[in-house]
Amino acid sequence: MRQILFLLLLVLAIIIALQFFVAPKQSDAAIFSLANNSLMLINADNQQTIAANSAAQLYDQQSDFAIYAETIKNQFSASETASGGDLWLINKQATIHKQLVADTKIIDAIIALRTQTIFYLTTDAQLFSMNFDGLNTTAIANKVISPTISADERFLTYQKLDDSWQPNDYFENSRGIFIFDITTNKERQITNAAEDFAPFFSPKATKIIFNSLSPEGLASFFIVDSTGSNRKQLTNLGQKFVTNTTVPIPTERPSWSPNGKYLVFESDNEIWLLEFASDLNSITRSQRISFGKSPRWRADGKTISVLTNEHPQNIINLDVNGNLIK
Q1: How far apart are CA 163 and CA 141, in angstroms?
Q2: 219 pairs with which residues across the strands?
Q3: HEC string of the chain?
Q4: Cα-based distances in Å from 96 to 54, 92, 314
Q5: What's the pLDDT tens digit per position in 249-270?
Q6: Is the peptide bond before 258 cis (omega within 30 degrees of 0)?
Q7: What is the pLDDT of residues 189-208, one digit of tens each?
Q8: How far is Cα 79 from Cα 48, in angstroms, rounded to an integer?
Q9: Mean pLDDT of the residues in the chain
Q10: For domain 28-142, which architecture applies?
Q11: Around Cβ 198, how many Cβ atoms within 10 Å?
Q12: Cβ contacts of residue 251 below 8 Å, gap of 6+?
């Protein structure tokens, strides 16, 4: 009798433990998206309106959090930084939902989840950081665009504009790709070509992947060591014209798989996957695996969740070969 009672108590304890330690399905699968000026949370089962009729731009989303603009101020200008927005933070449960920056001057922002920090870029190309509570605003760098952060949240990389750049100018006079060490507040130059843009780190931050022009003039992926050495073109080698084998450049920030082998990204409503060699210095496979947007790796590290282009939107799950997972 005592053994039966002990087993029942053990089973009950396991059930209670699972309720606490098993991650909620929604946090893993749900994706933030914009639709009809509203911020939506979409998963395979339903769509939930998080911010109704008050979302104009989605800057970034990481895990349970998203940062977005509620108001966009358009200016009539030739500048590539003409439109700026305010800055809001929200989580999937909507228990956190607050405005962090009221001025409509932000053109880009990224989330550093571990340190609960937000880095944001203004229309005059100044990069700032602040805490999730909206406090401790700190100036990071001036005259930069396209910032991204390393996985360990120690480094930032960005494209540096020329010292002569002024708001309302184009970004043609660029100085190349730079790295900023957040712990030492020191900046160093990695490349010096004006055509180098949209940099992001490899999983261990030992290399920088970025876009630039090939010798034939096609926008392509390149890679360089974080020291600035061993620059190498990765995609569209020798291609003189755009063909059905041409790898496009991303329209959203690319996302590494947990094992650091695959890179997935959206390019004009197409989902592309790049498979890297173990040293990351070459790509062994490049493939358009689906149509849609906002690809996200699931917690299992093997499944990619993608927002469909349908209306209303839905989520589909794919493997790394583009096969649909039911």
Answers
A1: 12
A2: 213
A3: CHHHHHHHHHHHHHHHHHHHHCCCHHHHHCEEEEECCEEEEECCCCEEEEECCCCCEEEEEECCEEEEECCEECCCCCCCCCCEEEEEEEECCCCCEEEEEEEEEEEEEEEECCCCEEEEEECCCEEEEEECCCCCCEEEEECEEEEEECCCCCEEEEEEECCCCCCCCCCCCEEEEEEEECCCCEEEECCCCCCCEEEEECCCCCEEEEEEECCCCCEEEEEEECCCCCCEECCCCCCCCCCCCCCCCCCCCCEECCCCCEEEEEECCEEEEEEECCCCCCEEEEEEEEECEEEEECCCCCCEEEECCCCCCCEEEECCCCCEEC
A4: 16, 8, 25
A5: 999 999 999 999 999 999 999 9
A6: no
A7: 999 999 999 999 999 999 99
A8: 36
A9: 87
A10: 6 Propeller (2.120)
A11: 21
A12: 266, 267, 268
Task: Report the candidate in 257, 296, 33 with the shortest Cα–Cα distance to residue 306.
Answer: 296
φ, ψ (nearest 5 deg) of residue 20: -90, -35
27: left (phi over 0), alpha (psi -120 to 50) or beta: alpha
Which has more confidence, 274 or 41? 274
Domain ranges of the chain: 28-142
Contact (CB, 8 A) for 236 and 220: yes
Identify the CA nearest to 200 among candidates 232, 174, 226.
226
**Structure tokens of 30?**
């749900």
Q: Rounded distance, CA 161 to CA 158, Å?
A: 10
| 85: its two tokens | 């927005």
What does the block give as tokens for 322?
């583009």
Q: Which residues contact 56 (CB under 8 A, 6 or more apart)?
A: 34, 37, 68, 69, 70, 71, 72, 85
Q: Token pair of 228, please? A: 């600035």
